[in-house]
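Materials and Methods. Structural model of Tetratricopeptide repeat protein. The 379-residue sequence of Tetratricopeptide repeat protein from Victivallis lenta was retrieved and submitted for structure prediction as follows.
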Amino acid sequence: MKKLFLCLAAVMAFQAFALRPGDPVEELVDVKWIQGVPFAMLPPAKPAPGDPEYKAVIFLLTRAQNTDDTLTLLNYLRRTFANRARFAVVTPDSEADVRALLARRPDFTLSFGIDTKRTLTPKYIGDSPLLPLAFLTDKSGEIIWSGEAAYLGEALQKCFDGTFDRKAQRKIAPLLEELPTLLRGENETRMRKTVDSIFQLEPGHPTALRIRLFVLESAGRVEEALKLIQSQLRLVPKNTRLYFEAMNLIARNPALAAYTGPTVQAYAGAVTDNADTDNQMAWMLLTRQPGDPEALKSALMLSRRAMSLLKRDTQGALRGACLNTQALLAARLGKLEEAARLQEEAVKVFQAAALPGAVADARQRLRYYRTAVELAGSN
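The predicted structure was written out as tokens:
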């Protein structure tokens, strides 16, 4: 158990940030902007009607394994919150590394700067060694949320739907900072109480939940881990992230396979108008549980619903992603020619949307399906 706690303390992103929710933002000084316009975090002296309601700066490392996922997420957030929120990326890495990354990702066009003196990054993130981290501010220049970049979209959505609790965020920050000490001291009882305190302030808090799930799953207490997620879902049944947490847990632990159907049904009943998450869930079921009949049935239902929710003029990343899933589903159902046709359509959609990374991935899948069709025809 001691080894478990030390491992978790080393890899989780909850070390003390230098800036907390409630603090005034630090301006992005000594930043060399390699791409996009210089990005100011402080509010303008003369606000204009078109100014965004929120701004976010994301600190990342260009060679980190999750960097591509972060850039893809930011592209999605830019489209989702267009004209209402603006985003910029800052890194302490070299200009050569930044230019190499941007050359590889021509679809990413947000402002991207280098912390030339490497003093701005520690001002924001303190002693947290794990990036990417995001800091969200309002029009007054106050930091209202900070955390792992993967959860920035969730925080923004709460801001816009009126469920974001600023006071809770200020209380959560010091509680998160207690957790490394509790983990290093192997004090699971106090750690559980601290996590529960965070859940009282924000049900299903992503970092607190991930910590608790890691401890439970590593100790072999997987049913207890699933019950924890279910307890949070009862409080926030429309939180899509929690359903994905549950399905990821089930996928990692075949002993929980019986919960696949009920979890998907609960999701489908609570979340009824989100083609994107329907498609993501269907894709995960097909790729993470390829041998599970219930997962196949659930993926078919969700993929069909996702396509039905798409507006006729919806193009770009979402339609292409839905076509990717439809193609994989057709292949799993033995319809190889249909899979190739759908995948070819996905390639065209991604091309029209100028998404080179998605085009390359879709073409590779198309080659696979065409090869499968040829091999099936030769036997």
